[in-house]
């Protein structure tokens, strides 16, 4: 395993923002040293495992745990280790989860820079997969290319960066698409989500290709944060072609995945950038994040602001029990190879109607600053947000060869 970096600043980066390579090296060495010292400290800390999700971690004081601070945004309570005898809540040890590259760095450095700042400071960084890829080499290489594009756009831009969900930040999910139905944009209804995965294609659910009473999907909008905001012309695209998976046979819920070809090349910027596909490599997918403008809960209104929600992976055998074979919809029950369940942590959290087709994603620990799309929001059989009843997502890695044959032939 090794780390690769590009060797110079993009030629088109603004001079006042483009850091010299030598300065980047100095900062990188500083971060590596901090990371090394953190590893030494971590080696003396007790191991722990989150009882609900199975995520591994180290016992740390609450005020030094980056994952706990991140979870506060989603109102996720920390799991405390054995009381260390102090009554000070901040000093009590919590099971601090092992996250991506950034969460392993020294907390003092993070408090000064922040993960977004680190994305701005360094050249694009990626690590080779732990094991040789069995599929998806094209998709992996394109992810690295988009990471380089992402970095250059960050340098050039001056913009700051379902149920149980919280408001996303503008530009936090630049691959997010809102899909509309109707001949005229001003009169269209927007009922599904999708993910930009290349200059031409959006990944979505096959059932989102058509909406009863409205017809086929005709519009994709990128770069917006609010459902009702006035989108710039450059962010509005027509759907040129709908390509559903050949094995999708409604009303069955299997192979619920489709590609939408845009009517012109999508122009990338700070707010619009493809997400990466999970190609089947080993990833930390115990917790993932759904995004969308769907209903805020059962019998509630559609979200006006983009929502993001943490969801936890459900074991395959539990998923099969929750979704037993059911008539024409799931005659064979859940198919582990192409479907997966994600659900709540005991607090109502779920994707809802209107979130369909949108991404289930994780932050990549290999291709830094990029999201990896592991699932496509497909369906659920119960009331939205009912505790103990997960949603079903199409497993993206199962369809990478099909996607590559169309998107990057």
UniProtKB/TrEMBL annotation:
Keyword Repressor: no
Membrane-spanning residues: 21-41
InterPro entries according to UniProt: CLIP_Serine_Protease (IPR051333), Peptidase_S1_PA (IPR009003), Peptidase_S1_PA_chymotrypsin (IPR043504), Peptidase_S1A (IPR001314), Trypsin_dom (IPR001254), TRYPSIN_HIS (IPR018114), TRYPSIN_SER (IPR033116)
Boundaries of every Peptidase S1 domain copy: 162-408
One term of GO molecular function: serine-type endopeptidase activity
Database matches in PROSITE patterns: TRYPSIN_DOM, TRYPSIN_HIS, TRYPSIN_SER
Keyword hit for Glycoprotein: yes
Parts forming coiled coils: none
GO terms for biological process, alphabetical: proteolysis
Matching Pfam families: Trypsin
Keyword terms, alphabetized: Disulfide bond, Glycoprotein, Hydrolase, Membrane, Protease, Serine protease, Signal, Transmembrane, Transmembrane helix
Family designation: Belongs to the peptidase S1 family. CLIP subfamily.
PANTHER family: EG:BACR7A4.3 PROTEIN-RELATED, PTHR24260
Protein name: Serine protease persephone-like
